[in-house]
């Protein structure tokens, strides 16, 4: 009987590590459920699914790479979506590992339409914290572990 192995993440896998902690993800920064990706510490898997979506859809990769052995940066944009043209929102995702994982997410909207960025560990359970802060360079910094909605009418308010 052949042993079934989890699916690979593909040729553009991003791997970062610090001490006994390491994380493998797709080039988007996502970790699909059932893949070999995830956050591991001392041979224990703590996170086996991690997704960032915009209006419920996966993002497209512009560029991604480790910037230090323990840190990675992901530059993403949106696909063509109902009510939101392709490349209307730039997303910057920065990740660190060590004694856990820290992820910071910033968006650069080039649209007046509202959109929602969501992080999830699985399909049914969004995480629950979000805050944002407008930066002078136009990026909207969002550090979270949950759902964040940006609306131009609220000019920087996040829910």
Question: How would you characterize the overall build of this protein?
Answer:
The chain is mostly beta strands and 159 residues long. The chain has a domain at 51-154. 0% of the residues lie in helices and 52% in strands. The chain has no helices and 13 strands. It has strands at residues 14-18, 21-25, 38-41, 44-47, 51-54, 57-58, 60-68, 71-77, 89-97, 101-109, 115-120, 128-134, 140-150. Strands 5, 6, 7, 8, 9, 10, 11, 12 and 13 form a 9-stranded antiparallel beta sheet that branches. The protein has a 4-stranded antiparallel beta sheet with strand order 1-2-3-4, with no helix packed on it. A hairpin with a 2-residue loop joins strand 7 and strand 8 (71-77). The radius of gyration is 16 Å and the shape is globular. The termini are far apart. This is Putative glycogen debranching enzyme N-terminal domain-containing protein. Residues 17-105 form the Putative glycogen debranching enzyme N-terminal domain.
Helix content: under 10%
- State the oligomer: single chain
Largest sheet: 9 strands, antiparallel
Overall pLDDT, averaged? Answer: 77
Q: Tell the overall outline.
A: globular
Query: Between the first and last Cα atoms, what is the distance in angstroms?
Result: 51 Å
β-strand number: 13
Which parts are unreliable, with pLDDT below 50 for 5 consecutive residues or more? 123-136, 141-159
Topology order in helix (H) and strand (E) letters: EEEEEEEEEEEEE
